[in-house]
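SEQUENCE AND FOLD
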Amino acid sequence: MASSLPQLATSCGGTLEIVQHNVTGLLHPPPSAGEAADAQLLEHILRLDRRTAAGRALSERLGIAGCRQVLTDFLPRQFHDSAEALLGRWQTLLRQLTWQRRQAREQHLGMV
């Protein structure tokens, strides 16, 4: 995506979080879907055929959108900021759980 090339990917797993169908690439069913998946994959390959004007235009549009997504969502700074925020939430949760366990232990020891 960072190289401004359109993505052609299966519509399963983490791919769905990265590739947006008809925006940054084309998604097709996984191979387990059988002949329907094969037909869809062939259709997508033909749609992206750069020997045609339509294929070049689609490839360029999807590629530019994919590159833009990488630059806005997946640069180290954005990843760092997201990871830091997540870590902060985990630290807060850990502090709360630790405090709750300490309170429960003190209450239990006070009752014995």
Q: What stands out?
A: The chain has a mean pLDDT of 88. The helical segments are 15-18, 35-47, 53-73, 76-111.
